Every structure is written in C-alpha cells, then in structure tokens.
Amino acid sequence: MHAWPASEVPALPGQGRDLRIHDTATGGLVTLDPGPVARIYVCGITPYDATHMGHAATYNAFDLVQRVWLDTKRQVHYVQNVTDVDDPLLERAERDGVDWVALAEKETTLFREDMTALRMLPPRHYIGAVEAIPGIVPLVERLRELGAAYELEGDIYFSVESDPHFGEVSGLDAAAMRLLSAERGGDPDRPGKKNPLDPMLWMAAREGEPSWDGSSLGRGRPGWHIECVAIALDHLGMTFDVQGGGSDLAFPHHEMGASHAQVLTGEYPMAKAYVHAGMVALDGEKMSKSKGNLVFVSRLRQDGVDPAAIRLALLSHHYRADWEWTDQVLRDAQERLTRWRAAVSRPDGPPAEPLVEEIREALSNDLDAPAALAAVDRWAALQQDQGGTDTGAPGVASRAVDALLGVAL
User: Fold this and answer.
1) Across the strands, what pairs with 219?
2) Structural domain of residue 328, as residue ranges?
3) How confident is the model at residue 373 (pLDDT cuts 50, 70, 90)?
4) Is residue 141 in a domain?
C-alpha cells in the first residue's frame, strides 16, 4: 500500500530542541532523545468514513512530532497502518450494499487526498492489515507456543495474564478496563474466556465474511491489536520512540498491543512513550462515526475552505485537549491565516529569528501549538503596526511556519 506525497520541509537557521512530551504510561512529561533516526508508529484509520476532524487532529499532532524531530536534524522513520478489514468496515459495506474491498480502497484514497491537502508528512511505511496477514500468522503461532494464547470455539485469544506489565500503559483498574473493553470492540462477557479482558488474536472464519489461510490457525482473520504489533515489530522493532493515536486507543488497543509485543520478544517496553491526542466534539458530543456527528475535511475542501485554515483551526488547540469544532473556530483560523499572509507579503519586517526560537520552544514543550501560534500572532502584529527593516524577515517567518507548523503562507 502506498502513502501520499511529501510536501517539502524548508530548512531553518540553527537547530531545534529535543521534544518533551506527555507519556500516558508514566502520567508525566518525558524528554525524548532518539538516535539519528527517530522511530514512531501511529495507528491509522479503519477506512469506512474518512477523514473527519477527530482524525485530522490526531494526525496533526504526530505530524508536529515529526517536524520537531526533523528540525533537530534527525531522520524520522514513521509507520502507519490501515485497518482495511474489520467489523465496522464490513458492517458499513453491508449496510450500503457495496463491496468491502472497494469501500476500503475508496476511503483510503480520500484519506490520502486529505492528508496531502493538509500537508501532513507521510509515513515511510503505510501498511494495510490484509497485506500484513503473512506476518501476523507466525506471531499468533508463537504466542500459542509460549502458552500466552488459547483457543475458544475456533477463535484464538491472548492471555493478558501472560504479561507482567499488563495495565501499565493505561493505568486503569480491572473494572474500568472491562467497561472500556465492552465499548471498544472487546467481548468481556463471552463465556469460556480465561480472563474477561483477553483480546482476540485470530477470528475463525465466519460465513459470509472474508477469511484467509492461517496455516495452523485455520481460516480466519486477525484481531485488531496483533495487526499493529506485527507491522510495528517488522518495521521498527521494539522500544521505538513513540506509539501514537487518539486517547481512545490507550485502552484497549495500545495496552493490548504492548502486551502482545512484550510477551513475543521478552523485551520491555514496546515504546518509550505512549502519546495520545484528545477528542474533538461537535454539538456537545465526541465526533465519531457511530454517532454520525462528523465534520469531514473533504467536505470543507469541496466547500472552498483553504486547507491551511483547517490546519490552523487544529493547531489552535493543544493536542491533548478535548475540544469542540464550531463555525467560529474555523472563522478564527481563516482570519488568522489572512493576517499571517498579509504580514509575510511585505518586503521587510521586524527580525524573525527570535520568532523561530519561540516556535521551537513552544513545540518542544509538549507540542504547545497554541503558544506557537501566539508567537506568530505577535510577530504579525508588529509587522502590521510598526514594520521593520529586515528584508529577510518575512521569508524566515514564512519558512518557519511552514517547516514547524505545516502551514504554507
């Protein structure tokens, strides 16, 4: 599976700062110090309805992570999956009377177009669950060999008790985990499971549903969590720098994935930091496909909204915050974009090197994009009110906003 084209990231004078970021597992800020190549895995979409503002906010957060790392002169090895076979996709295809493969391909294509328009830097490896199945099957077989998996009516489950570190990613107690498991694709009430929280590794073939040869596992398809583990281990290995996604993935997805990987490899932890973006609401409720209260990037683009304004709307909220999308949020972003473009269109202005350092400092401090935007606002206001004599300043400011915030002026 191919990703989308990369936009050019301008080079800036000086060098960026190492990133301090909130780690869900420890509950505090950690300073990331990757080697020459920083490694990040971000969980991708299930392509049956792409791309709403919740998606865009999540991928914007991890695009900023990449840009901070690139500014420190590191390379970035970014991997993202596409869950191109799963119950929600199959249910949507059946509801709409369309082929599930065609639906997945259509929505994945639209997602790529949205990411390109928003200037999100693409992953080096963009891997679908279906193409990952040959690598998933041996991992499930290995977990069985280790005594960490068991069969129940043809389905194969992972035993969470096989990992002594289970629960350390989310920090939740068993009761909270059970409630979230039921809400987020698990089956804690299924009779016969060793532990209600045990997640499925391999689902035996169901009539009328797609399935693949699983060798000793029989025909079926992979569970959600083992999909990402197989892709991450194949392309990044263990103890990579950041495991990212929305806050609703901390449990069960990232918790289960970490346990799968740690049992498989005997190493700990799977990732140095578990980083989660907040949820975006509309009309007082979390924006979600199940509720149908979605604002789509593609719809806004079709209505003539500048993608740079959409990106500024996302950046105006801290990535970990839960916030609500409103027409006013978009209007404010459009007005800000107009002010910034007017500021950099002048032939000279106040020095912009201090602005570059302000943006760097803000982003290195747990991706504080609102503080970075405020710094650009101040520079643009000076440009408007007083101007300046530095002929290179508008260009430096424009390149900084592009390189660090992903907004082309």
Assistant:
1) 213
2) 303-405
3) very high
4) yes
